[in-house]
Amino acid sequence: MRLCWNLDHVLHMPMKRIRLYLFLYFTGTVLLQFAYRCLDRLARGSASDWGIILLEQASGVYGTAVLLPFMLWAFRRYPIRRSITPWIQHSLLLAAFSVLHTSWNWGTRILVFRIIAVGGYDYGKMPLRYFMEFPADVITYVLAAGAYAVYWDWMRSRDMESELAMARLDGLTRQLQPHFLFNALNAVSGLMYEDVDRADLMLERICTFLRSTMRSPDSPLDSIANEVLLARQYLEIMQARFENKLVYTIHCDSSAEAIQIPTLLLQPLIENAVKYGQDPESGNLDIQIDILLSNRTVAVRIRDHGPGFQAIYEGQGLTNTKRRLESRYGVAAVLRLSAHPMGGAISELEIPV
Questions:
Q1: CB-based contacts of 225: which residues, under 8 Å, 6+ apart?
Q2: Assign residue 343 a region: left if phi > 0, alpha if psi is -120 to 50, beta otherwise?
Q3: Could you give the CA distance from residue 131 to residue 155 in angstroms, rounded to a whole number?
Q4: pLDDT at 302 over 90
Q5: Per-residue pLDDT tens for 233-267?
Q6: What is the pTM (predicted TM-score) of this model?
Q7: 131-134 long-range contacts, CB within 8 A, separation 24+
Q8: Domain boundaries, the chain
Q9: CATH annotation of 160-352
């Protein structure tokens, strides 16, 4: 039988935090039991040796902590089901736990009493002591088994909810690809009879963009660095269409590049800026994209210099973006569309890290 103190795997939490929580729990239990025993003695008008009471409670409670890996191993190795076999197995394991726990209490108390030179410790008749401690150990074992079962039920439920959210996010991501392709090919179709060379260049850049999306991880999430690359490739497609009329700048914090966000999250916002952001008089497109990381929040700001927010039509792209944000982050993410005081529209995203 191989026991391991692998709480990081069992509880899916950092080991340092687990150790701190366990220490606080068992220490609090020691203090509460110590207070109970002392107050019981006072209520009965009996004299007490507070040091002995504290030692007894500490050895018993911390003995449970020492044997916690044994219980975790038992719960993982023999899951409780609606059959007789697991109950027999856990009855035997419970008996073993009780014997070990009582033996620990006896051995540690004798040892500590000798070390601190306060004389010997009388634990009474050991055969009877094993029977006496057994009911308390049954309560400890059953409570630990119940807590373990509740925790894993919660973990399974959380994992299922996470998988469902990721599946929904993946479905919304896949909706974007045909949406983008339709818009891009529609733009090529409008240009084909005006300038064949520019239409051909657009098709070449569309192919480059699609190859990049196919090389992305098979996941509804991607790094901001890859999202910036796709944004740049899309704007290069549009540059082939508008030529010198389209100017864009992209600034991204290097510290934000590795952060994962939903794939093609920025695409509909950039498409809107291209579609509605032309200057009414000159027809020029000036698009600015800024991505900053501050206070564990990624802030994305996309500004155009068109007629303003009132011209933006919230179509499938923006509706899809809102749904994807809600699916991934709930109410923690924010999407704002507003008019810039000096002209043009601004799309702002705030994404928690």
A1: 252, 257, 258
A2: left
A3: 36
A4: yes
A5: 888 888 877 878 889 999 999 999 999 988 888 88
A6: 0.50
A7: 133/98, 133/101, 133/102, 133/105, 134/95, 134/98
A8: 7-123, 160-352
A9: 3.30.565.10
